[in-house]
Write a structure and sequence with these properties.
With 180 residues, this protein is of the alpha+beta class. The protein is built from 8 helices and 4 strands, in the order ααααααβαβββα. Helices cover 62% and strands 14% of the residues. Helix 1 (4-19) packs across helix 2 (23-39), helix 2 (23-39) runs antiparallel to helix 6 (89-103) and helix 4 runs antiparallel to helix 5 (71-82).
Length: 180
């Protein structure tokens, strides 16, 4: 969960986006910006380095993003850089995304399986989760071979674990308690 500063910046940005009916566009561009910083962590360090002049940081932001993102988002990046908040950009993105999802009746569902799921199975899971939650579902699948089999589904703060690894662990615990 983002801290209060990140949430305030994100909410302010969301309100501006909503005025222009560009909430989704801003969400997508924020994700892309975070990807750039994720792939180039030194770029984010540059924006946070106090010994580098603000003008140099802003010129770098312009060189990288001008013409590629909404002008208001570029100004937003310059503002958070000026205020020493560039390091919170990922948290701001998460807070913005949470607000966007809330406002639009969307829920993010994370599904972890031992092997990649087929497209048909992914669609079936998405449909089922949509029926269960009553919301539009953004499904985020991932693979963890240590599960052995089954699935772990995470929705908000809830987790439903039907993995074989968990069932074996529970069985082992029961056997240990029975023997002890």
């Amino acid at each position: 969960m983002a801290d209060i500063v990140s949430e305030r910046y994100a909410l302010s940005l969301y309100e501006i986006a909503a005025e222009g009916r560009q909430e989704k566009a801003y969400l997508d561009e924020l994700a892309a910006i975070c990807d750039v910083f994720g792939q180039q962590p030194d770029f984010l360090k540059l924006l946070q380095t106090p010994s580098i002049a603000l003008e140099d940081k802003q010129n770098t932001l312009r060189a990288v993003f001008e013409g590629r993102i909404e002008p208001f988002l570029l100004n937003f990046l310059m503002l958070i850089t000026e205020k020493g908040r560039a390091g919170l950009l990922h948290d701001m993105y998460q807070a913005y995304k949470e607000h966007y999802y809330f406002e639009n009746g969307i829920v993010e569902v994370r599904a972890v399986t031992a092997k990649p799921m087929s497209d048909a199975l992914l669609q079936k899971l998405k449909t089922k989760m949509s029926a269960v939650t009553g919301k539009q579902v953004v499904l985020v699948p991932s693979v963890d071979e240590s599960l052995i089999g089954g699935i772990v589904v995470k929705i908000d703060n809830e987790q439903f674990d039907t993995s074989l690894r968990t069932r074996i662990s529970e069985l082992a615990a029961r056997l240990t308690n029975t023997i002890a």
